[in-house]
Specification:
Strand content: 5-15%
Strand order of the largest sheet: 1-2-3
Number of strands: 9
Order of helices and strands: EEEHHHHHHHHHHEEEHHHHHHHEEHEH
Number of helices: 19
Structural class: mainly alpha
Shape: globular
Length: 441
């Protein structure tokens, strides 16, 4: 097997007809890829022994079978790959069952595997929108059926290699139904004070970013309080991951731990607050569940609050990704950073305060200033007359050491200047000590 640049594993083996087969496994997990390769080798062995039809004939037979049967076999294989939770299987069955139901309504008959194409997927997504669902829900429908299509391709039932590129995603940013916000520092303190016996649950979520289901499943055996490390099963990706527990939280957990025989096997919390209980705690803490911009606070917003605190403290996205236990840092940046104008202002103050230092050190030999540069009339360069430009001017010792071209200015477009300024702000945020950016919004 070989790992491709996109992170997915590609397998190579000899087919039943003696020809080399090279095929993507469609997964980034090595264990899953090895399982797919083992299944492919077993299938080719059956072909050589005459126990199974060659690929072309077998694929033709499979394409005429009802889609519902294939989905049932896929769900069985999906559950066998790893110990999937009941909740994970229930959600997947529901979403795929919805796809079959809507496909049958669209086609006015039971769909077969041959009917699965980009057109059908997009029609089902459109039906979900017509039912009042969001673009994100429609994209989730697409994601799950494409996962099935990848499995069917790897199993030799069909060739859906191009299906993912042809079935287009909906634009979620244009159809946001539920936007969360982070708690401020004052709101965090008020919630913990009003929570009573649920204080430790909320604090654990705020300081570790654990999801509600992960907290519900957490046992004392998962916590190494002596070393400040916990282990949790990530229900979204189906693997166990470690997380840090800070000293103050370790002390509170240690005080709450029962001193009984067999404690390790017990759950840390007998129950996790329901949505109704969480809303009552917000009311007691005088925190509005929905703000003037329509953004909401729910239990999952506690996890988003941690992501926002990391961003405000200047933590690099790659590090924040690990703390939040995401597989892609873009998920952390897109969904878990709720910085306010106050945070942005603090970042700008730090960046601009360092401007004299940057000028003294030299940036490509100089500093930046904005100047008005006129464009001769009649030009078609795309830059309007009087458009703002940015000149990079050398000065001081840098000008002397720059040689004969030191007195020449380097002209940048305003767009290039803004990009450069944003890059510098990001570097300042990443290098600034924690706590220097201000309160989290």
């Amino acid at each position: 097997m070989r790992r491709e640049p996109n992170g997915k594993w590609t397998m190579r083996f000899m087919g039943g007809d003696g020809r080399e087969v090279k095929r993507s496994t469609g997964t980034t997990d090595r264990r899953d890829a090895e399982a797919i390769l083992a299944a492919a080798l077993q299938r080719e062995a059956r072909v050589r022994q005459g126990l199974e039809a060659p690929g072309a004939q077998r694929m033709a037979d499979q394409l005429s079978r009802p889609l519902r049967e294939h989905l049932g076999e896929y769900l069985e294989a999906f559950e066998r790959q790893e110990a999937r939770t009941a909740g994970t299987m229930r959600v997947r069955r529901s979403i795929l069952g919805t796809f079959v139901r809507l496909s049958k309504s669209i086609m006015r008959r039971d769909p077969v595997l041959r009917d699965l194409d980009s057109s059908l997927i997009e029609k089902v997504m459109h039906r979900r929108i017509e039912e009042g669902r969001s673009a994100r829900t429609a994209n989730t429908q697409r994601q799950y059926i494409l996962a099935f299509a990848a499995w069917a391709t790897n199993d030799g039932r069909a060739d859906f290699a191009r299906l993912g590129r042809m079935a287009k995603r909906r634009k979620e940013d244009l159809d946001r139904r539920r936007e969360r916000r982070a708690l401020t520092a004052a709101e965090e303190a008020a919630l913990l004070e009003a929570a009573g016996p649920r204080r430790l649950v909320y604090r654990l979520a705020l300081e570790t970013g654990l999801r509600k289901n992960e907290i519900r499943a957490l046992a004392w055996a998962d916590l190494d309080l002596e070393n400040g490390i916990g282990t949790v099963r990530n229900t979204k990706v189906g693997r166990s991951e470690d997380f840090n527990i800070m000293p103050d939280l370790v002390a509170e957990l240690s005080a709450a731990r029962p001193m009984l025989v067999g404690t390790n096997a017990r759950k840390v919390f007998d129950s996790v607050p329901t949505h109704r209980t969480f809303r009552r705690d917000l009311e007691r803490a005088a925190i509005a569940e929905r703000d003037e911009r329509g953004r909401v606070i729910d239990f999952h917003a506690l996890r988003g609050t941690l992501g926002t605190r990391l961003a405000a403290a200047g933590v690099a996205p790659q590090v924040a990704k690990g703390i939040m236990r995401h597989s892609d840092y873009r998920t952390t940046v897109k969904h878990y950073h709720h910085l306010t104008l106050h945070d942005q202002r603090k970042a700008l103050e730090i960046a601009l305060a360092r401007a004299p230092q940057l000028a003294a050190e030299g940036t490509s030999g100089g500093f930046l200033e904005v100047a008005e540069v006129g464009t001769p009339s009649g030009t078609s360069s795309g830059t309007s007359r009087g458009a703002k430009r940015v000149n990079s001017v050398r000065s001081g010792a840098n000008a002397e050491s720059a040689g004969p071209r030191a007195d020449q200015s380097q002209t940048l477009s305003l767009r290039e200047f803004v990009r450069l300024l944003a890059s510098r702000c990001e570097s300042v945020l990443q290098s600034a000590p924690q706590g220097t950016i201000g309160a989290v919004g």
